Amino acid sequence: MNKRKSRIIAFAMLVIGVCFIAVALNNPQLSWPWSNTITYFLYFVYLLGMVVLFIAPFKEKK
Question: CA geometry: angle at 59 spanning 56 and 62, to 5°?
């Protein structure tokens, strides 16, 4: 994956994440059908993937 694609995907993930947070804050009555532990794990994996895609283009190839 080249640098530009990685950054575009990471930026799209960031925008989707911000939109999700905006919807979640305006609709506190909505919830997931599983425990909060699973929800927090999924949030962490999403955030980690986004950070990796942002950082990956700056890593030097040998």
Answer: 130
